[in-house]
Amino acid sequence: MPELPEVETIKNVLAHNLMGKTVKEIRLFYKPLLEVDSLFDVSILKDQTFTMFERRGKYLIFGFSNGLYWIVHLRMEGKFHLYETPTLKNKHTHLTLIADGTHVHYLDTRKFSRMAITDNLNAYFEKKNLGLEPFDAKLTVSYLREKLKNRRIAIKALLLDQSVITGIGNIYADEILFLSRIHPLTTSNILSDKDLKRIIENTVIVLNQAIEAGGTTIRSYTSSLGVSGRFQLVLNAYGRYQEPCVNCETLLSKTKIAGRTSVYCEKCQRVRK
Q: What is the tens place of the pLDDT at every residue in 74-83?
């Protein structure tokens, strides 16, 4: 699943190509793509101009001249393709639109992605129960302590919990914990304030580096837009099981947490009891 840096990259590319353009035609071919609680059908975007491109966690948000918002969650395989000439859709193309000569195809091989049209962003996201953005100044040690109250949870699972911090997935959780030198199974009740502060700081560092690199091209989320992420070239932990640690050369280990594989260094990220 594309995580915050990949979604941010996609947002920026789409904004560069579509900002200020008017939708001349839009067609949805796979109706279940539209959430059941979407307030409007996509057809309401016809003759409207793109005025805003934003991101909330892993959600893309497109604003239009009629005051409506088109929200897209890519899930596992959602992708946008841009063309300058008419292009035939394939079996995985579920939506097409034309905006002042730019042809946009939305594809999803697994059909897991979802979208909605709303006139109230706050009301929409309140239902999603998303936590703070990683770059939000409100993301503090005190905030995490409050979220951890009465919970005993592995720190890796906490980082994956979108109701605590939104936008982090498996790739960047591994990288954040490696940089913080914290074992992914370390439980929240034994994390010090210093640990939490380090995690917050390294979250910002890792995500900013990944955004600057255009994300991580483990699977092709952005190549359809002419962008290949480069962060996979500097990964320290994710996907490097049995490869030597960049710090101490110990072969990296792995374990399952919250249904996801976690890669870590047993020497640099020691288990705490």
A: 998 899 999 9
Starting at the edge strand that comes first in sequence, how are the strands of the sheet with 50-56 ordered?
A: 50-56, 59-64, 69-73, 114-118
C-alpha 66/C-alpha 48 separation (Å) is 6
CATH number, domain at 120? 3.20.190.10
CB atoms within 10 A of CB 19: 14
Q: Which two tokens stand for residue 207?
A: 């995500």
258, 173: one domain: yes
Q: Three-class SS of residue 78?
A: coil
80 and 161 within one domain: no
Q: Mind telling me the catalytic residues? A: 2-3, 58, 260
Q: pTM for this one?
A: 0.92
Cα angle 226-11-49, degrees, rounded to a multiple of 5: 105
Q: Give the ranges where 31-88 is alpha helix by DSSP (H).
A: none
Which of 55, 53, 19, 59 has its CA nearest to residue 35?
Answer: 59
* Domain count of the fold of the chain: 2
Residues pairing with 188 in the sheet: none
Tens digits of per-residue pLDDT, 122-165?
999 999 999 999 999 999 999 999 999 888 999 999 999 999 99
- Give dist(CA 27, CA 23) in Å, integer: 11
Task: Report d(CA 166, CA 69) in Å as an integer.
Answer: 20
Q: What range does the domain containing 248 cover?
A: 141-264
